[in-house]
Specification:
Layout (H helix, E strand, L loop, with lengths): L9 E5 L6 H11 L3 E6 L7 H5 L6 E5 L12 E4 L8 H8 L4 E2 L1 H8 L4 E5 L4 H13 L5 E5 L17 E5 L2 H5 L10 E4 L13 H13 L6 E5 L3 H5 L7 E6 L10 E8 L2 E6 L4 E5 L8 H16 L4 H10 L8 E6 L2 E5 L6 H8 L7 E5 L9 H10 E7 L4 H15 L4 E6 L2 H11 L5 E4 L12 H13 L4
Parallel strand pairs: 1-2, 1-4, 2-3, 4-5, 6-8, 6-9, 7-8, 9-10, 10-11, 11-12, 16-20, 17-18, 17-20, 18-19
Antiparallel strand pairs: 12-13, 13-14, 15-16
């Protein structure tokens, strides 16, 4: 594949979206001189933000519908990750022998530098950002891209053979690599939890897409795995690459073909390497809080040490890095109550990790939303044990969550104040303020997807932030 191949070609982009990925793809192909048509089931008004970014580009639009002819009379179809594989329009393209590609597939074909890929159900954004910051302490030329609300193709012009490319990869993006039989040279898998079962027929299908991050690696590749996640640990049996495990536990039993990466012992982080035990830093010098974030740090440190980043540089980054937008993000403290935005917690496991990040303080939880065919039983137990009041947001999964909580309450004879469901974030936050007292925490950690009330989880988080800003102080 050559970047010049696309000039004057007809390119149909299915799914413009609102996260920036579709916009980046459209700009890329338009900039190469391709004849671009964007088609999306959403209306012009719903896609207004994305369309405004493409105002000066010669792009045709078919909105509110898809047309069969746009998948027949074209040279190439680019599939947005949100478009399901069983789309009838993708089938029309296949039946008419029109190639179907993804931005990630094209990126892997054209990228001249080795890629560090990060995937997992949770933690991949934090790990990717940490790796980016750690590598920049030693290398000038580092590029962060992938599943971060922008298309990777925008970054291609900045990349040469010496560039360190850090790529966050979702399961859907990895699915797009199967036909290319490609994997990143350096791969990290943070964890595997139940997620996206509204899109996948089974957990096995979901896991198989995740495995693509190492399936095409060779013996010259590196695979960094979370030893404490049993599913992830077992991936080492299928790997052809060099395996490094990271762990918070002490009971690590390595097979002859794997190595120990970053790990916790006592109150310090060490790096094992092939034959060494090197102290990196004490845990009390780390700014990020929560056990799940220790996992994220260990993953990033393992990659940093593979790239010979100094311990002094690692400590500097870890002592300053406070996390990402919408991930246990402290928005404000009002009347000694902390308001925390964890909008990217779109699964029960992610919400439980958030609850476990805080000590025995009063938590007023805002949760609920759209269904991803997940199970709420364990989360219900955690909520009953850790939460003083629950504010529910409206959505297709909210009744499932409420039923699981009621069942748990009945089984132990306990009561919990449950308010809602509500269809307004401002009202939810105002109600949470009424329930909270000094030293409490108001936590937005929905455990569900955002669609329905919000366009995406970041809009949900933005509305939470604005609601907090509007509270009486």
């Amino acid at each position: 594949m050559n970047i010049k191949d696309f000039k004057n070609k007809k390119v149909t982009i299915i799914g413009l979206g609102l996260h920036g990925g579709g916009v980046g793809v459209a700009k890329f192909f338009s900039g190469l001189g391709a004849k671009v048509l964007v088609t999306d089931l959403r209306s012009k008004e719903e896609l207004r933000e994305s369309i405004e970014q493409l105002e000066r580009k010669e792009i045709k639009y078919v909105l509110g519908q898809h047309r069969s002819e746009d998948f027949i009379n074209t040279d190439l179809v680019i599939k947005n990750p949100a478009v399901p594989d069983d789309s009838r329009y993708l089938k029309i393209a296949k039946d008419n022998k029109v190639p179907i590609e993804t931005d990630i597939g094209i990126f892997f074909e054209l990228c001249p530098a080795p890629i560090i890929g990060i995937t997992g159900t949770k933690g991949k954004s934090t790990v990717s950002s940490l790796i980016d910051k750690l590598l920049k302490k030693k290398y000038r030329d580092v590029v962060l891209a992938g599943n971060i609300r922008a298309s990777v193709l925008k970054k291609l012009k900045k990349i040469n053979k010496q560039t360190k490319v850090v790529l966050e990869l979702s399961s859907w993006q990895l699915n797009g690599l199967k036909s290319h039989k490609k994997s990143p040279k350096y791969a990290v898998i943070t964890n595997i939890m139940r997620d996206h079962l509204n899109r996948y027929k089974s957990m096995e299908d979901y896991i198989n897409d995740k495995k693509q991050i190492f399936k095409s690696q060779t013996s010259k590749g590196y695979l960094v795995l979370n030893y404490d996640d049993k599913t992830v640990r077992e991936f080492s049996r299928e790997a052809k690459s060099q395996v490094f495990f990271y762990s918070q536990g002490n009971g690590i039993v390595l097979n002859p073909d794997s190595r120990l990466g970053a790990f916790v012992k006592g109150e310090k982080i060490y790096f094992g390497g092939p034959d060494i035990k090197e102290e990196i830093c004490p845990l009390d010098q780390i700014r990020l809080k929560g056990s799940h974030n220790i996992d994220n740090i260990l993953a990033a440190v393992t990659i940093a040490k593979i790239y010979d980043v100094s311990n002094r540089s690692i400590v500097k980054v870890l002592s300053k890095f406070k996390g990402l937008e919408g991930r246990l993000e402290l928005i404000d403290t009002i009347d000694e109550v902390k308001y925390i935005n964890d909008t990217t917690a779109t699964t029960p496991d992610a919400c439980m990790a958030a609850l476990n990040s805080f000590g025995p303080k009063g938590i007023v939880l805002i949760a609920g939303g759209a269904d991803k065919e997940l199970i709420f039983d364990e989360l219900a137990e955690a909520i009953v044990n850790r939460v003083k009041a629950l504010i529910l947001l409206d959505g297709t999964a909210t009744s499932k969550l409420q039923k699981a909580i009621n069942k748990q309450l009945e089984s132990i004879g306990k009561e919990l104040k449950i308010i809602g469901p509500m269809d307004n974030m401002r009202q939810a936050v105002a109600t949470a303020q009424e329930e909270a007292i000094e030293k409490d925490i108001v936590l937005l950690s929905p455990a569900c997807a955002s669609f329905g009330l919000f366009r995406h989880e970041f809009e949900r988080g933005e509305k939470f932030n604005r609601a907090v800003a509007g509270l009486n102080k």
